[in-house]
Amino acid sequence: MADGNVEDSIYPIAVLIDELRNEDVALRLNSIKKLSTIALALGVERTRNELIPFLTDTIYDEDEVLLALAEQLGNFTPLVGGSDHVYVLLAPLESLATVEETVVRDKAVESLRNIAVEHKPKDLESHFVPLVKRLSQGDWFTSRTSACGLFSVCYARVNPNVKSELRNHYKMLCNDDTPMVRRAAAGKLGEFAKVCDGDQVKADLIPSFTSLAGDDQDSVRLLTVEASIAIAGLLNTTEIEDLLMPTIRAVMQDKSWRVRYMVADKFTQLQKAVKFDITKNDLVNAYHHLLRDAEAEVRAAAAHKVKDFCEALPKDCQEQVLMNSILPCVKELVNDPNQHVKSALASTIMGLSNILGRDGTIEHLLPLFLTQLKDECPEVRLNIISNLECVNKVIGVSQLSQSLLPAIVDLAEDTKWRVRLAIIEYIPLLAGQLGIEFFNEKLNNLCMAWLSDSVFAIREAATKNLKKLVEEFGSEWAQNTLMPKVLNMSRNQNYLHRLTTLFAINVLASVCGKELASKTILPVIINLGGDSVPNVRFNVAKTLLQLEPNFEDSDLQSKVKPCLEKLTTDTDVDVRFFAVEAIDGIKQARGNNW
């Protein structure tokens, strides 16, 4: 009996070892994903003494297996006995942090960061810090890049002597011969600076920052932008001006567009970090240059920050800076040859109206909005229409309609059907921005005119549009305003318009209720069942099937059934087919007695 218990307790680890050595990668991966189950079966002591050493010795596998292992070990602390024994997980994770595949290393570092906080201070100094030192002095660049992400998680909880050693190791990594290591060090510099004291940052980390910002690799230099934001947040204005700004100025004018792009992308964060005086003296001019950069990617990133940059300016100079420095650039960007630049600007330009006020918006911004509304790029038009509410709050709907509505109407009646189609998609958005009264007065007739367009794609889009408008304005508006006009089209001499009536009814019936469906909609459909055009008649059959849930039993028996039975004897084969299909569909929904 005792021997049987021993065999049972050994069985899980035997299965694990067997599967981990299996030639089938899927089996090995499955085994790794079950590590927590195996560890629970073994207990904390055998997990520490048998499982972890075994895993440490077998880290020579496919990347996907190693990735799964790195992820599992990050959650293994309770399975090895908690914080008293968490350090036993360091050995396999250290090996994983040195492998060639980046995603495995990154996952191993992530797991090491997770378990670092679970170490007791003495274990941190005796086990975790030596691991960081070993990695930072490794022969292969892979271990040194991994080390960069581990300094910040252990630094705050060690004694001053160890802190000094860690700073020295980090400085060595910042000056490493391998660009990949310097890149990793630059990427984590800001994070490390946040856990260091102010004096240590100034003495040890700012020289490293300056060195990295002047690196010969642009992939290193661009990462110092984020580091500069973190470091600036730790210094006062005088220190920023003396220690950081000379380097930041050089980075802003970097010869590499990728570095300037990063500056533009992080510009508002940098603006908040360096305080008002430096913003007025340095950043306004730098931002002006970024908006006029030779590279479209840089201009687009800068244009995207126009609103946030201007809103964060000191109130005493906000409007002056906008008028003198920013607005001239904005006027140029409205006609930029690159559509991504124009689109980025269109997504934020409306926000400037709050700063300029009513008169300034009417004089300076409305002409730019009009230009962008007529832009050939649909994303530019969409971004303008999506943000009309910002302008509406400043200048009022009356002024807005006088200025911009004519441009929207022009687009809606454009001779090119693709232009008309583009504006249709924006109308529900516009309706929501401007309200029901304005819509009924200015845009309702336009939407109804699209239902009679000569191009099917326009009629189809206009029909779908109606549903979005009903969702915006409610079913009461649909019953009182929309439905009468839609039903009136059923008497049009052009069969295409009569077809559109059926399409519109299909869309609107679900929001109009059973009473309106029976009393108003059904008679129109039944009447169209006798239409002279087969296309209309078979669409009547399809519509009756689709609207079946909206009709009472009495209406189905007295009106729908006779109409469909008549259509089953129609001279047109398609009409007969859809009529039979409708009858079968309604029988299935209501029962065979129908």
Low-confidence stretches: 1-9
Mean pLDDT across the residues is 84
Number of helices: 34
- N-to-C terminal Cα separation, in Å? 72 Å
The amount of beta strand, in percent, is: under 5%
**Can you count the beta strands?**
0
| Silhouette | flat
Q: Helix- and strand-based class? A: mainly alpha
Major beta-sheet overview: none
Helical content (DSSP H or I, runs of 4+): over 70%
Radius of gyration: 35 Å
Description:
The protein has helices at 2-20, 25-33, 35-42, 44-57, 63-73, 90-96, 102-116, 121-136, 141-148, 151-155, 160-174, 179-194, 198-213, 218-221, 224-232, 237-252, 257-265, 267-273, 275-291, 296-303, 306-311, 318-333, 339-346, 353-373, 378-386, 388-412, 417-434, 436-450, 456-473, 475-488, 495-528, 534-546, 553-567, 573-590. It is mainly alpha-helical and 594 residues long. Helices cover 77% and strands 0% of the residues. The chain is built from 34 helices and no strands.
List keywords for this structure.
disordered N terminus; single chain; 34 helices; 594 residues; mainly alpha; flat
Write the layout of secondary structure elements.
Elements: H1 2-20, H2 25-33, H3 35-42, H4 44-57, H5 63-73, H6 90-96, H7 102-116, H8 121-136, H9 141-148, H10 151-155, H11 160-174, H12 179-194, H13 198-213, H14 218-221, H15 224-232, H16 237-252, H17 257-265, H18 267-273, H19 275-291, H20 296-303, H21 306-311, H22 318-333, H23 339-346, H24 353-373, H25 378-386, H26 388-412, H27 417-434, H28 436-450, H29 456-473, H30 475-488, H31 495-528, H32 534-546, H33 553-567, H34 573-590
Helix pairs in contact: 1-3, 2-5, 4-6, 5-7, 6-7, 8-9, 8-11, 9-12, 11-13, 12-13, 12-15, 13-15, 13-16, 15-16, 16-19, 17-20, 18-19, 19-22, 20-23, 22-24, 23-25, 24-26, 25-27, 26-27, 26-28, 27-28, 27-29, 28-29, 29-30, 29-31, 30-31, 31-32, 31-33, 32-34, 33-34
